[in-house]
Specification:
globular, 328 residues, PreATP-grasp_dom_sf, D-amino Acid Aminotransferase, Chain A, domain 1, four-stranded parallel beta sheet, 10 helices
Length: 328
C-alpha cells in the first residue's frame, strides 16, 4: 500500500482581502498553481495524496485524520499573529501525527525576527545591527543610517516597499508608526546592508545539506542598494542564479546556512537569506522554515542546479521527515 500523505496549505483564494487590512495581508498564502505543482509532485513519487487544505479543514477532520494520513506535508502559513505558522504543527503534535517540516517552536521563533536575531547573535552568526521600536521612542539610536524598517513577525516581504529604507530620524519615526498602525505589531529596525543578496536552501537532518547558494537578481541587476519589496513576490522580475567563481564565499554561505538552520532547530527543509557587503562581510537576514515551493522560487531553482527535478526535491524533503521519525 502506498504511503498516505496529507497536505496542509493556505490558498490565496480562501481568504478574501479585508478592505481594512494591509494591502499585502494575503502575500504569504499560496497560489493554486503552486499547490497543484506540490500535489503533482507527491503523486509522481508514488504516494497517495490526502488533500487537507487550511487549519480550519484540519480541525474539522482531526478525529479521523490518523486513519486517513500516515504523514502530513505542512506548508500552511496560518492566519493571525506571530504564532500563526505554529498552528498546524501544534495540532499535529497534539494528535501524534508525523509531519514534514519544523516543529511549532521553531515556526514561532523564526517568524519573530527579533527572537531570531537574538539567537543568531548568541551563536555568533553575523546579522545586521538592529533595535526593536519601544514605546519610549528613539532617544538612544546607535545605528548608522540608512536603516530598513520591517514588521517584527511577517514574511513574504510584507510591508517592504521603497519607503522601508529610511535615511533620517523623521522618516524612521514615520515608518515605524506606519508598521505599528497598519500591521498592528512592533517594528524591527536594522542597518541596511548595501550589497549582493544570496539565498541558500537547506535540506535534511543529521546532517543537513546546504544546496548551491543562489544570487538574487532584480530586473537583471544585483540588489546592491535595492530591496526585495512585496511587489516582486508575484512578478517575473526576480531571478536566481547560482554563485560562480568564488569558492571561498560559496563555502562560507553554505556553512553559515547550516549553522543558522541548526541554531533555530529547523527540520527537513528551510531557506536562509543573506546580504554580502562591498567589503565581503556576510550577514544573515532571516531564515524561513516555510520557503515557497513555487517552481520558479529559490528552493526549486537551487534544486534544479543541484540536478534534482521538482518531484525529487519533494521526495528528498519527505524522506528526511520519514527518516527523522524512524530514528526517534
Amino acid at each position: 500500500m502506498p504511503l498516505k500523505i496529507g497536505l496542509t496549505y493556505d490558498l490565496e483564494s480562501d481568504y478574501p482581502l479585508n478592505p481594512a487590512s494591509a494591502p499585502d495581508a494575503n502575500s504569504e498564502f499560496d497560489s493554486s498553481r503552486t499547490i497543484r505543482s506540490v500535489k503533482e509532485g507527491i503523486y509522481e513519487n508514488g504516494y497517495e495524496l490526502v488533500d487537507i487544505g487550511n487549519f480550519e479543514n484540519l480541525l474539522n477532520i482531526r478525529k479521523t485524520l490518523r486513519s486517513k494520513a500516515d504523514l502530513v506535508f505542512n506548508i500552511a502559513e496560518g492566519i493571525k499573529g506571530r504564532n500563526r505558522e505554529a498552528q498546524v504543527p501544534q495540532l499535529l503534535e497534539y494528535l501524534n501525527i508525523p509531519y514534514v517540516g519544523s516543529d511549532a517552536l521553531t515556526m514561532s521563533l523564526t517568524l519573530d525576527k527579533i527572537i531570531t536575531k537574538q539567537i543568531l547573535i548568541s551563536y555568533k552568526i553575523p546579522t545586521p545591527n538592529y533595535f526593536s521600536y519601544q514605546e519610549s521612542g528613539f532617544k538612544n539610536i546607535n545605528l548608522k543610517f540608512p536603516l530598513i524598517v520591517k514588521p517584527r513577525w511577517e514574511g513574504s516581504s510584507m510591508a517592504i516597499t521603497s519607503e522601508s529604507v529610511v535615511k533620517t530620524k523623521q522618516n524612521l519615526i514615520g515608518r515605524v508608526n506606519y508598521i505599528k498602525e497598519k500591521y498592528r505589531q512592533p517594528a524591527l529596525v536594522e542597518e541596511f546592508i548595501n550589497g549582493s543578496e544570496f539565498t541558500v536552501s537547506v535540506i535534511g537532518n543529521s546532517p543537513p545539506q546546504a544546496l548551491i547558494p543562489m544570487k538574487v537578481i532584480l530586473n537583471g541587476n544585483e540588489m546592491r542598494d535595492k530591496i526585495f519589496d512585496n511587489s516582486y513576490i508575484r512578478t517575473e522580475n526576480i531571478a536566481y542564479i547560482p554563485i560562480a567563481g568564488n569558492n571561498i564565499l560559496e563555502a562560507k554561505l553554505r556553512d553559515l546556512a547550516i549553522k543558522t538552520y541548526d541554531a533555530v532547530g529547523c527540520l527537513d527543509f528551510a531557506r536562509v537569506d543573506f546580504r554580502v557587503n562591498k567589503q565581503g562581510g556576510i550577514f544573515v537576514l532571516e531564515i524561513n522554515p516555510l520557503p515557497a515551493l513555487n517552481k520558479k522560487d529559490a528552493l526549486a531553482v537551487s534544486a534544479k542546479y543541484t540536478g534534482w527535478s521538482f518531484s525529487l526535491l519533494l521526495e528528498k524533503i519527505i524522506k528526511a521527515a520519514l527518516n527523522r521519525y524512524r530514528n526517534n
